[in-house]
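Following the same procedure, backbone shapes were mapped to integers, as reproduced here:
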Amino acid sequence: MFSVSAGSLFAAMAFAVGCSSAFQATTGFRAGPSLKVFSPGSSTRLFNTWSNGQAIKEYQDFLETGNQDVELKRDRPSIIVTPLFAEDSRLVDAVVALGEGEDALIKPGTPMPEEYAGQDSFPIYICVPPSELDEFLNYLPDEWKAKMSDFVFFSGGKLCGCIEPTLKRYGLARDTMTQALASGFTMPGPTGKPQDLAIKIGSDAGGEDKWAGESAVCGQWQGAFAERLARNGIRVRTGFYRDWRRYMWERAAYDAVFNLVGAVRGEPTTIREVANYYPEEVSDMLWEVSSTLRGTLAVTLTYGFEERLFGVGENSDEGLCEVNDAVYPHIFDNPMLTSKMILQYLNFAKDEVGLLENVELPPSQLDRPSSMRQGNLRSDGVI
């Protein structure tokens, strides 16, 4: 995978061949009518070794296709699909603000144009919330189905959540489908424009900056959305679905673990306070989730995930941790439920804290979390 830095226009890619891969090159766009990528071998670094048989098979299948370059398409006037029922328009407002004023907004079920702004192929940004996504996909009109390859889906954060289980049911969690992490930028605020949330967390052994919390995008329209982000000063990673999926699940682990550890405290707790005052609980849960993802989904989180997630948490302005009926389906109701610690804390949240009143949880095999501190440790030392 390669990274698109703010202020750049096209991206280069570092690709690691073998059963170990990570994409760690920070590169720039280069202008031109054709968005082809190149592979500077000097910036390729190997970090993770896959031991899961399913992952190795998927990687071998990928190599056999011979397609090891990412074609990046230019940004263009696009269609933005707005929520049908939800009143929260923050994601719609963000995608509109990232564009150049030439996009069209439509509601689900309304006619889908075959051409728009003189193009028969254009990104279709699906900005419906996770709570509406299943119904949206289940009742797609035929003219919408004909354009499904142009759909762009969003994941990440409590606003967009983890939608992979829903996309899988419709066969849409695949290489060519465009998916973006929306957790790497703010929703429009007083400035009217999304702001970058990427955090610099130090330097690696080679002296290059290390970053956390970046946006990421994959699929056929990744170049178009990456161009929108870069044009607005937002860092973004682009590359293949296989690697984007790791970053998506890394963010999903962050959303679940930090919110859960904070929500069960005796008083309201922020994400930043969780990172600063409960690192042992968070670390234990993150590593168990990492093992769970590797065993159930053949997803191996990339090297340094714990440092990156703590970097995001320590700099977070997300506010109070939340575990409630509204966020549960798209934050916790996924393969992470097979994590014993996640399930243990969720049952504690329901039985002892009074959260998740209308959610039926699988029973926990563990007793009350033994490592949980009572109260909330503040900077003045009071628990």
About this structure: Residues 241-263 form the longest helix (23 residues). The first strand starts at residue 2 and ends at 4.
